[in-house]
Amino acid sequence: MAKHLVIVESPAKAKTVNRYLGSDYLVKASLGHIRDLPKNRLGVDIENDFEPEYQVLKTRKKTVAELQQAAIQCDSILLAADPDREGEAICWHLAAILKDFNPKIRRVMFHEITSRAVKESFSNVIELDQDKFNAQQTRRILDRLVGYRISPLLWEKIGRGLSAGRVQSVALRLICEREKEIKDFNPEEFWKLTAYLKASNPPEFQAGLVKIGGRKNKIRTGKEAENIVTELKKLPFELKDVTIKEKKKNPQAPYITSTLQQDSFRINRFSVKKTMMVAQKLYEGINIGDKGLVGLITYMRTDSFRVSNEAIKSCRKFIKDGYSAEYLPGKPRIYKNKKKAQDAHEAIRPTSFDLPPEKIKLFLNKEQYRLYTMIWNRFIASQMNPALIEETVFDIQAGKYQFQVKGEVIKFDGFMAAYPKKNKEEKRLPKALSGEELKLLKLEPEQKFTQPPPRYTEGSLVKELEACGIGRPSTYVPIISTLLNRDYVVKEKGKFIPLELGIFVTDYLIKNFPELMKFEFTARLEEKLDKISEGEEWIGYLGSYNSLLEKNLNAAEKTESVKAKGIPSEDKCPECGKKLVIKSGRYGRFKACSGYPDCTFKQSIGKKEAKPVDEKCPKCGSQMVLRRGKYGPFVACSNYPSCKYIKKEKKDTGISCPECDGMIVQKKTRKGKLFFGCSNFPKCKFASWDEPVKKPCPECNREFVLRKNTMKEDAYLYCSDKDCGYKETVKAKQIWEKNKE
What gap in Å lies between CA 432 and CA 450, rounded to an integer? Predict the structure, then answer.
């Protein structure tokens, strides 16, 4: 019987940790949070020092019972949730429900899941951090006060299904204000003038006009540009000055959560949610052949650039051996944290420098490989010498007109050997001397217009939220998801566009809750949470926050409701020409004619917006439309809910069913999981999770089914005919051994 019960959050993490502990330890997973405030009411006693009412989650009751039973049978309990506020909260709630079954409860904290880190942490157990839990509890209560007190007001005054959030609403304000800037922007015309020139030595090059008469002047009109071109064609072009200087380009700091999210979106086009899901898996452990489950990166929720001395030492050895001594600085690079950084964890880095991405590519899926490669390259580069760039500047004079061009040549690639910039090519200029006359090949005027600020992408929104001190990287995923799910914004080509509903709600909140909607107020709150985690009092702060909220709520209760008449829209009714309004109904939000009941036009909006397709409903003859649901797009009848016909999309594999004359098609379960079944269902109920492959079985000539082991230990083909039983296996371990050689 195990002496110690170890509790982590996820089964994957439990498997990895279990590998490094002996038989004295029983490792179990809590499956995340086990308790929370009730869903159907506020759950906070405001009159009694904001006492929270915690309940065991319905989905965790079985898990809790198992943990309580295990606690009785073990000598002690070691809580090993993630090393952050949320992890501390999970541990605190676990301690609260387990202390009556076993009072010997301690905390274990590690920032990477490796043999060394796990064993070291288990030899240095600590007490639970009450201050850190108080900070998390304060944030949770604040979010509940805002969400459960303002959201009902929105339902009453505007429409059902709306929500407000302490950070969510401020993030929405950013998106709405950016849209207003774009709408109010007046583009200005200007002209860019480029001269194509040739010196005595190749290559030919281009130079742009930068000054006229010693001053930076913009060419405002095409006529003005045409006059300048005419004048320049008559003038000699002289290379007035040649400046050559060497400059250093330093590497960037290793990744923290926000910069990883930004770069992952920019480079891989991963959403913030996807980035964190993939990073979580890399942290918890990947099966690497005979090495078993290995945690490949350090904890991925961090705002600190700090790196352990041991990691720096290993990284420097890798650079010296893998590149050469000239790439290695004389002393390690140390990066300073931002003022607001909590510095609880290291920067995001690889846990082992014996596992470069190419060596373990076989064991990673495409997303894992791309993200791991990013983290690996960035960290290795962060400890390398700077790149040396030779910059050449040509200043060219033609009468009163000054042109300039800059060229760059990499003299030493330095850190760029590990972290090259994509699409960054050298720009070489010819060897030329000051005073040399250049030959004008052609002049090219180009019309331009000033551009408005761009709409936010997930990457740039995270960057702006971080710059404003709003929220924490761990909260950005639910913020973005909520804004999309509430129909406040849509994403088009990766950019956020606020819908009229989102703009109206934002304006309403700014008018009625001015302090709570200020960026500075939200940022100061985050600073306050940091101070609470360091031991500062928290109940008094909740009281002052709630007083301000009460004051605003009382004033907002007196405002006029638009629920009945709807939110004004800029769109006009296509049937009668009157203004459309936005309303909420049983089946979601929709736009309706303000002339109702004389005009009954209406259409769904936001993420539920239906787009007509060139098909008629086979049941009622109405127009079929393309809609978007929880599991992606689908085609259904536009006459919903009167007609509930949904077209079932089936992907034909081209392979015949092994049990009848039907074909195998790709389908989805109600939860969106893919499987393969017979097209003759329900007459034929053949189904398989495995993807069929057109390859005859050597035993019975039936088709095979391809199956890849989820832990990447091996892949195998087996015959679809159960009576045959033929199986062909390809061991991934054999390939791993070959790679090591």
Answer: 35
The neighbour count for residue 702, using CB atoms within 10 Å, is 18
Q: What is the spatial distance between Cα 529 and Cα 470, in angstroms, rounded to a whole number?
A: 12
Residue 564: per-residue pLDDT? 83
Alpha-carbon span 496 to 492, nearest angstrom: 7
Retrieve residue 508's tokens.
């309403």
Q: Is 25 a catalytic residue?
A: no
Cα angle 688, 690, 696; round to 5: 100
Query: How far apart are alpha carbons 416 and 564 in whole angstroms?
Result: 61
* 108: pLDDT strictly greater than 50: yes
Using alpha carbons, select from 245, 178, 622 the residue that is nearest to residue 406: 245
What SS3 state is found at 164? coil
Report the alpha-carbon distance of residue 10 to residue 74 in Å, rounded.
20
Residue 124, judged by CB atoms within 10 A of its CB (0-12, 13-18, 19+), counts as exposed
pLDDT digits (tens, 9 = 90+) for 81-102: 988 889 999 999 999 999 999 9
Residue 506 Cα distances to 24, 158, 165, 456, 513, angstroms: 56, 12, 11, 17, 10
Q: How many CB atoms lie within 10 A of CB 710?
A: 7
Question: What sign has the CA pseudo-torsion 348, 354, 359, 364?
Answer: negative
- The secondary element (H helix, E strand) that includes residue 197 is strand 189-198
What is the C-alpha separation between 239 and 438, in angstroms, rounded? 7
**Which tokens hold the place of 230?**
């005419």
For the chain, how far is it from start to end, CA to CA, in angstroms? 41
CA distance 279 to 286: 11
Q: Point out which residues pair with 730 in neighbouring strands.
A: 715
Peptide bond preceding 251 in cis form (omega within 30 of 0): no
Tell me, what's the pLDDT at 730?
A: 52
Contact 635/644 with Cβ under 8 angstroms?
Answer: no
Which two structure tokens, joined as six digits, stand for 81? 């949730």
User: Rounded distance, CA 719 to CA 123, Å?
Assistant: 50
- Sheet with 663-668, strands from edge to edge, namely 651-656, 663-668, 674-678, 687-688
The H-assigned helical ranges of 497-570 are 500-512, 519-532, 539-556
Length of the chain: 741
Task: Please name every residue paired with 427 in a beta bridge, in sequence order, or none if there are none.
Answer: 408
Q: Are the C-beta atoms of 605 and 617 separated by less than 8 Å?
A: no
Pairwise CA distance, residues 621 & 287, whole Å: 53
Residues 346 and 111 sit within 8 Å (Cβ to Cβ):
yes
CA distances from 343 to 110, 266, 346 (A): 14, 26, 7
Residue 199 C-alpha from the chain's centroid: 49
pTM of the model: 0.77
Burial class (CB within 10 angstroms; exposed 0-12, middle 13-18, buried 19+) of 393: middle
Task: Return the structure tokens found at 167.
Answer: 């950070």
Spatial distance between the Cα atoms of 226 and 54, rounded to a whole number of angstroms: 74
C-alpha separations of 583 from 567, 569, 610, 728 in Å: 7, 10, 16, 59
Burial bucket for residue 429 (CB in 10 Å: 0-12, 13-18, 19+): buried
| pLDDT 10s digits, 415-426 | 999 987 764 568
Using N-to-C axis directions, what is the helix angle for 168-184 and 458-468, rounded to 10°? 110
- Catalytic pick among 283, 299, 369, 508: 299
Give me the residue label for tokens 């060596």.
359
Domains identified in the chain and CATH numbers? 4-128 (3.40.50.140), 139-182+462-556 (1.10.460.10), 189-248+392-449 (2.70.20.10), 257-382 (1.10.290.10), 567-637 (no CATH), 651-740 (no CATH)
